[in-house]
Amino acid sequence: MPFFPKLRPYILIGLFLSLFLSLDFFSDNFTNAATPTTVAPVSGSALTQGVTKTVLDNGLTVLTKEIHTAPVVSVQVWYKVGSRNEGTGENGISHQLEHLMFKGTSTRPVQFGRLFSALGSQSNAFTSYDETAYYGTVQRDKLEALLTLEADRMEGALIEPDQLTSEKRVVISELQGYENSPSYRLGRAVLRAAFPNRTYGLPVGGTKADVEKFTLSQVRNYYQTFYSPDNATLVVTGDFTTAPTLKVIKDTFGKVPKRAKTVPPKGSVSVPSNTPAKKEPIVLKQPGSAALLQVVYPLPDVKHPDVAAIDLMDGILTGGRSSRLYQDLVESGLASSVSASAAELIEPGWYEINATAAPGQELSRISSVLQQSLTKLQQQPVSNEELNRAKTQLQASFILNNQDITSQANQLGYNQTVAGDYRFIEGYLAAIAKVTPADVQKAAKTYLDPAKQTIGFFEPTQADGKPGTSNAGSGRTAENFSPGKPVDPAELAKYLPPATSATTASKQSLPEQFTLANGMRVLLLSDRSFPSINLTGQIDAGAEFDNIQKAGLASLTAGNLMNGTKTKNALTLAKSLEDKGASLGFSPSREGVAIGGQGLSANLPILIETLADVVQNATFPADQLELSRRRSLIGLKAQLDDPRGLGRRVFQQAIYPENHPFYSFPTEESLKAITRDDLVRFYQEHYRPDTTTLAMVGDFEPAKVKALLNQAFGKWQAKGKAPILNLTSVPLPQSQTRLNKVIPGKAEAVTYIGYNGISRKDPRFYAVSVLNQILGGDTLSSRLGTEVRDRQGLTYGIYSAFAAGVNPGPFLIQMQTSPQDANKAIASAVALLKQVRDQGVTEAELNTAKRSITNSYPVDLANPSDVASIILDNSVYGLSPTEIREFPNRIQAVTMTQVQQVIKDLINPDKLVIVTAGPNA
């Protein structure tokens, strides 16, 4: 259950989007007009149309919105309490309570994560500065069950001594994991200095010192004070009927009594936003991988009339590659990355700018250039082109980030809880449309005042980023451990609210699949319910084609595709997309290069034309290659300094032999050895239409898309035969192997346990998926999660997975622990594997796991972006086009005999590779 200490502006000021949009801006006319001189405003009243607000007698605010595009519903409960409300010695208590809310109630004394999993609910929670929210999305027949569970824990949460003790350990594990990040440590120091008298200056998750001291009465009192219905908002969106649903809500939540306040809310000390901040820079000299800069400026609260201009100012500064700070800092070679966010909250917040230095660049120089950029913004009005681009990007991001009902409910809950009115967005969007260049300049002068800034530098003391090896690194784990009996699903079932009538399975539409004359495969699935385009694809040009001497070549090639073509330079390419609020990118992975694009319906032509241009005409400018190489070197150092990244690298290299494509990882030497000629050669050999698959889901007419594709890709021809890989089979280790890697300056260890597994096309995949759901597929409901996290409190997160791709990938268990707890947690996990190997699973576990997977699957299908990924993956893996429809049936058909066989085939506790990376215990 993560907390979210920082939120991007489009999340902070969420847009709840109605599905009834009748705007020319979103028309499906496939025209490419020049950048307009004005931007068509989005109507706020249309965006909140259909929301019903009800306030129950006990003060609970209920927001309902019917959206009948998929047979799913989202239920969210937002409490108006976060770190802002914490008193002295209570830092992190909101977050601690969030964890305890999953530990059961007086009427249901079971882990709620298991109940949610049994319903097939995609559930979680988060804590932030002003709010704590709990959310779940399920098939529509589970709506009443989800409402019953949320009402139950609003009133009857069990907060007992043993639970508090174990969950304190879990929270501390979570906090220590964040301590591994230099940027987290820098941000904590800067905010503390910027807001010395306000709880906004304290970390949302708390501090280890405070968490260790929480008492039972303290946490119970906090729950009684803030988890009252009159301090909460219930949001329900999706496929339901309002009147009967409101009756259920009144029958469940309406019975929860309004609580008498036992203590007054302890908010932060209100400090005017113009209070001078700390002048001298904060300097942290600690182990790390890269030099970091963070600058914070005070901002007003979310309801202030300047908020719209501030958000557009942020877009002009950091909204994409064409933005001012990207051009001034990243394109100049000073920084490897730059980002910013505006925290606009119940009380005055802040604007935060972050930059990571490029290799060899001084933070003082970056700070100076940053200040010059901000001064220029203050002294000269922005152009209409820049302002319109920022407006378009902001409006498009709201729409594209709210395609699914969960996100829409999230925006409703945020606006009601933090801004005080779900209709807040109406005034906000109207204000965005009216912002002028003078307004942006005024905002920059008012809020980017150097006299009010707090600046921090992180200067790494470990220059080479190379980890050490501990001498405790071989042999088996030293502890013996006998796990308790698995939780009986039958025992769980008596606490599970019943579903209503079974959902009638609506037949999932199948994509239209065809192949262009040049061999490029295309999958199209028209969905006219939302004015968006979700484009995804894969080119078989991944890191599996790297060799050890030039490891990183596939990644550098993909990273340079958008750096220029024969007719457009990098900035022109970026502006052509960003002017429309569209995005297109390439993400290299082991087995391919992923294509990802999004835009409004009218943006489809520019997405296709840009994609076609870069895959056929990329020019790989030498200066851009050098900039991207430096960014890759910084990324490499960050990976070696991160227990997760280093651990996975060492784990994989212990499983696969040196001649296997899954063995190679970039090194400083290999990245420096790659030439521009290498990129051009790799591009010519591996970027081919006959190894490219493209999938699109969204608001389009397939016939028009086919015409566009033929026109854009018709001249792209493959030469010769496509490169192929000859993979040798990978045997299991002969015995258990243990490796430890020490990274100085870390607080938490990360462990990987496993060996080589199976491919996605392996007929055992469905049985393996069911087995994995039981073993570690869900941190709160699986055997691993129940034992290692929930009962023993040894880890914040533990899960297992079969990384099944085109080729067999690893079976792995991953967990995060304190270094002192690593051996005990490893022994526990290995013992659980032996338990499964020796005793198998029960029939009740099998049936529960199958229901959990199949009940959750429709939630994935309700998100157009997820659907695009599913149909693409199915095609790339060589599965039938009907797989998207048949997958739940194949899971449901798994038998106990099949699961017993995959346990025999694939669970080998005596042949594990165990890698732990982190501090030296």
Automatic annotation (TrEMBL):
The lineage of its organism: Bacteria, Bacillati, Cyanobacteriota, Cyanophyceae, Nostocales. Residues 62-207, 523-630 form the Peptidase M16 N-terminal domain. GO terms for molecular function: metal ion binding. It comes from Hassallia byssoidea VB512170. Signal peptide: none annotated. Pfam families: Peptidase_M16 (PF00675), Peptidase_M16_C (PF05193). InterPro entries: Metalloenz_LuxS/M16, MPP/UQCRC_Complex, Pept_M16_N, Peptidase_M16_C. Residues 213-394, 674-852 form the Peptidase M16 C-terminal domain. Belongs to the peptidase M16 family. Residues 468-480 have a biased composition (Polar residues). This is Insulinase family protein. Residues 458-491 are annotated as: Disordered. It comes from the Bacteria.
